[in-house]
Amino acid sequence: MQLTQKHQEYWGKNLRITGILLFVWFFFTFVTGWFSRELNEFTFLGPLGFYFAAQGSLIIYVLIIGFYAKYMNKLDVEYGVHEGEDD
Amino acid sequence: MSQVSQAQFYANLKKYYSFYTGGFIAFVVIVGILEQMGVPNKILGYCFLFATILLYAGIGFMSKTAEVSEYYVAGRRVPALFNGMATGADWMSAASFIGMAGTLYLAGFDGLAFVMGWTGGYCLVALFLAPYLRKFGQFTIPDFLGARYGGHIPRLIGVIAAIVCSFTYVIAQIYGVGLITSRFTGLEFGVGVFVGLAGILVCSFLGGMKAVTWTQVAQYIILIFAYLIPVVWLSAKNTGVPIPQIVAYTTALPAVTALEKQFNDKTTPKGAAEESVRAIFRARAADADAKLKGLEAGGAKFLEEEKAKLSAKVAELKAAPAPDVKAIEAAEKAVKEFPADPAKAKTAWTAAKGAAAAKAGNIAAHAEPFAAKDDVERAKKKKNFLALIACLMIGTAALPHILMRYYTTPSVKEARISVTWSLFFIFLLYFTAPALGILAKQEVYTNLVGSSFAQLPAWVQNWAAVDKTLMSITDINKDGIVQLAEITIGGDLIVLATPEIAGLPYVISGLVAAGGLAAALSTADGLLLTIANALSHDLYYKMIDPNAPTVRRLAVSKGLLLVVAVLAAYVTSLKPGDILFLVGAAFSLAASGFFPALVCGVFWKRANKLGAILGMLSGLGLCAYYMYMTYPFFGVKAPLWWDIAPISAGTFGIPAGFLGVIIGSLISPAPSKEVQDLVDHVRYPNLEGDIDSVGR
């Protein structure tokens, strides 16, 4: 099985989106977590630091996964590596 | 079910489960009517317990199968939406359902590590594992390790790691089952464990993963209704808005914060009342401390003197002109319960000192992160908060019973969508729990504190009568008014008592119990199946007898399922240690053992057999070593590394695992062409001239 240039490109794009989303995940977990006390000075539905840990970060997690699924399922079709319709 | 097309199958499922949901609502309504007609609560409790267990058994029976791929991976035709629900039920355990809101009530901000850790891990599942494991498409997680790294050793280590973390976790679940059945039906704890176990077995025994999947979908529907209804009601009752996830932060939290300030300010009437109770606790703590110091200096002799003093007090009371019967009883009880030897005295007095000291100071603000007395302590708390989140998240992405669920979708595409649904369904409960914690706190701070001991709310009286560890309330300063420091609440109370706090009829309490039972049973199902499959598929079929016929493979699997279940129930009935630590330990162990080898297996072609072996062994080894050295239960009590608590042992185990994989791989030759082809195979959902790895 020989991978074409196109295949390499697909995998490269996959790694890029994985990296970007991983950064978003990291930011809304550990960066907001680290600065919770400082964020609590601001208010959005209660103190902001508390809000992120209780609800905001969770919403972002759902969005991250939803976006990844949509993006990759489209990328599969674009690069012709998608599966047949009826399995 | 006959072989219909996937689209038709999906449409049918939606129809079945809509009927099911309607039927379940009708059932709740009927039980509600029975209650109004005067049927006693105990009967209603039995109704819920047996109706739901019968229902699960029914689904299990209808899904019985003799086909290998149906037994292990539900025939690989579970649509994304339903796999999401099944994963949700698989994931949310008794600890999440009953314990989480209470943990948040008690710990405030710092408890949110569990909320974040148990949801954010799905990002790692989605980005690093689920689609690739689905493409690989075998039956178990050790299967992947075996195929990717070659040979029996990686597979065997995988089997051992899967069994260790799943078994630790399943004990916590069966414990939850026993607790709920005994509380709502009055059966004994041990009997409750085995009744629950029967419920688990009828469903997984006949139909394996297929039955477990369809039961878990049914269980998810029950548990999410049971969790949301009381909270929405409570929110509507207290604030007038039925959206707890918003009003808890806009209305309840500011009210709670304002009251916290008053309780901590001695110049306000509420603060002064609190202070009078705290002064008593401070005196108690000092008393216990003095006794401990005396014990240190005088040893057994001091103990005898103390006991003699107590006995003298009894004699003195009895000799008084007008003997006070209650005082005599209390004094006699003190003599009777006096610790027998210095070791017991030390334990008892240390506990007494800790309990009193905890009530002697100011209360922490609910929304304040890392509340502590100085910056050094705060830094420690912050570090542990983040470390625990990291361990729980990576552990999520490494627990075999969760990863296994993504083998069951029809395609890679559906696997990706399915992770989204999974987290969405989990999120529904997890973003409600912090709101419930705050609403319950508001209720206690405004309606319970300041009320008179002569007229306690009904729910307080009920629960204080049922279980002192859940609700205990004593008039410490004898002023007839409830102060916050006079209330002791056990975490599990919050979810269990919410229906009563909200003024809902008993039928909703029954529903909550059914929901808790569904949460515990579904997780236990998934875990037991994982253990039995690791033994029967990986150990027996792949390593001992690869020529075993299908019938024998399934028979071995079912036999092992029984053995493991009974063993787990037996261990549970011994009531071992701290449930939260068991759960945390399972996550740290899974994270350290599996995550590095699994992720490198997909993302680093150069990773090879020696790397995987070294990585898994060093990760698991270091994690277990740190827990053994630092967790008080084992008695070594070595100093902590960088103040990291034993529950977060994965903080060291995970990096060790990655280092092991990297070093081991680099000092030995690159994997064969065949293995590298397998990596390409899992990376692309569809490749021309591809190999076929799907197990049938």
Mean pLDDT of chain A: 89
Number of strand elements of chain A: 0
- Proportion of residues in extended strands of chain B: under 5%
Report helical residue fraction of chain A: over 70%
Largest sheet of chain B: 2 strands, antiparallel
The helix count of chain B comes to: 27
Overall shape of chain A: elongated
Placed side by side, the strands forming the largest sheet of chain B appear as: 1-2
Distance between the termini of chain A: 23 Å
User: What class, by secondary structure content of chain A?
Assistant: mainly alpha
Proportion of strand residues of chain A: under 5%
Number of helices of chain A: 3
Low confidence ranges of chain B:
none
Task: Explain what you see.
The complex is a heterodimer of chains A (87) and B (696). Chain A is mainly alpha-helical and 87 residues long. Helix content of chain A is 75%, strand content 0%. Chain A contains three helices and no strands. In chain A, helix 1 (5-34) runs antiparallel to helix 3 (48-78). The radius of gyration of chain A is 18 Å and the shape is elongated. The mean pLDDT of chain A is 89. The longest helix of chain B is centred in the first third of the chain and has 51 residues, at 189-239. The mean pLDDT of chain B is 86. Chain B is globular, with a radius of gyration of 28 Å. The two termini of chain B are 18 Å apart. Chain B is mainly alpha-helical. At the A-B interface, helix 1 and helix 3 of A face helix 6, helix 10, helix 15, helix 17 and helix 27 of B.
